[in-house]
Amino acid sequence: MKLHLEIWRQAGPNHEGRFESVTVEDAVPQMSILELLDHVNSGMVERGEEPYMFASDCREGICGTCGLLVNGRPHGLEQNKPACQQRLLNVADGTTLKIEPFRSAAFPVIKDMIVDRSALDRVMQQGGYVTVNAGTAPDADTLHMNHQTAELALDHAACIGCGACVAACPNGAAHLFTGAKLVHLSLMPMGKEERGRRARKMVDELETNFGHCSLYGECADVCPAGIPLTAVAAINKERARAFFTGKDA
Fold it and tell me: Which stretches make up the 4Fe-4S ferredoxin-type domain (predicted)?
């Protein structure tokens, strides 16, 4: 299968970038987007050329490390799949694919298609933890949690922090990411002591680094973990709860 690729090349954060044209004559439909780039890079290394830089780790859709724009869509052409799981099965022979880094003011380019997503880490540092009693592990039935609540918490804990929601949002908002974390942590029986403080600090950090949410919904459309758009409601809900209770908890 023959594919025409337009791949982003940028030497560093302070350099101008450009697209470079690459033609692949022997692409295989079973290849993922990352494997396609691996194939391109292998040929470049053999020719003594500098390969394209991109981030990846587990390649199982779990780590959230991979992140690319393919024809303007985060991760790839298919809905709710990470780049490592995006196959070429539905890409026609002769298609042109434009591959570039996530585009957001909060994600500055480090090199080629690698971006700095530490702004998401800073949100988590403000409240992504729980208070527990140190010492011997408690009995399994010490903390009660019904099955429905546990499943809802797990659904939101599935967020892999890839940043696709930010790249898809016209405003560069990270409300789906932050909302998923707030829902998950607010439902857990541990960590109640810092619930209010968590909401205030995480939302403040969110608004410092990212744009405002206008509920366009593109974020949920590309989320590999399938986090629902309703998670965004946790931003105002948890912040309002903290304000009216006037307590850290």
Answer: 150-179
